[in-house]
Amino acid sequence: MKAKNLKFFIFITTIVAIFCTSFIFPSYLNKATSFISDKTPLNIPQISEKSFKLGLDLQGGAHLIYKADLSKIDEGDQSDVMQGLRDVIERRVNAFGVQEPLIQTEEVSGEYRLTVDLAGVKDISQAVDMIGKTPLLEFKTERTEEDIKRRVDKIEEVQGMTDEQLESVENIELALDDPYYQRTSLTGQYLKKSELGTDQYTNASVVLLTFNDEGAKLFEQITSDNVGKSIAIYIDNMPISAPVVQEAIAGGQARITGSFTRDEAKTMVKNLNAGALPVPISLISEQTVGPTLGMASLNQSLKAGIFGFIIVLIFMIVFYRLLGLISSVSLILYVVFILFIFKLFGITLTLSGIGGFILSIGMAVDANILIFSRMREELNSGKTFSQSLSEGFNRAWPSIKDGNLTTLIVAGILFFFGTSFVKGFALTLSIGIFVSVITAVFITRNILRLFENGKLSKIKWLWK
User: Could you tell me which CATH number the domain at 290-462 has?
Assistant: First the structure.
């Protein structure tokens, strides 16, 4: 790179670093711009202050575990139903106002569970109440007369029996089901949206439903198979409407009518838009992380990171002299760029994520050490500064590439197959590796090129 282009590159890098620093710490720049605006006619706009997004372990909040009842779901469909449940709860939590909730499904001892982490939630009881009240929406079709008779007879048979007597009754499940309607595959899992409407003939409030593509196909199939029969709409196992199908209904549109007020219809629309559950859930565990404990963890993490970073800078300067000083500048730029990315894209920072970030600093230092060691070997062999610089980077690059590539592969495995905390670690580590390669290979190299053919390049002890 020519000297003119090299200086331009350094200038652009400096401007970008200043911009990133201002975005990370806007309060300091805003104070300066406010002072200038007060003392001069200039009206300098201020940078909006955006905070870093902190995870549950740093910000405090709630950790909730729900158990899903999949007893009536075929084994082959349970995984898909749990994914639908996760999506529904996420919509519900977002409607509640929680930003970036962490919701995961898992299987424990044959039970399917849903883990919900709500960072920053102050009213835990209200969050639990809102999630727990999410309605179970089901569409049921009429049973045959023979099927109805079998269930009604069984219900009459078991009436008045004790629990011990019920254990010896054959086909007891017939008495536990709805005797008149049977479940279908169409549930709230396939609901796209709900809105309030008005019946054009009676002016009564109705709830309009729109299904997704798969739900539209199921609804069309169900109405085709039940022309002239009623389809009952249940919410939380309570029938709210049982309209008779006049013809097959295509397009995925349906409506709920009933003897409810407009306020009740509005509430139903709100609940359904937040998400009707495909299966019932029950809260089995609730843990809270106080903001004081979270702040203490954050402060300790920041102190550890700052002290570690300073020690690394001192080590580099003591052992590599001017090379170490240049490396320190590169590392500072690396930290600025990383924090800018975290804040710009709203990456949630957890304790494990901060650990991945700190580890990536070590990876960045490792790249510089490989380059500087190769440069020293070339200088000791009698080569010029320019030759040593070129050979040092060229020969160190294969080791840097292979080392970072293998780390990225491991981080990718951790991200796709690990738990939530492991994923946070893998994500910040991966981002750090990409940025560290850029700062070590491009920024450090171009800063060193400023010394080519200069007086300092002649002073051997500064570089060896």
Answer: 1.20.1640.10
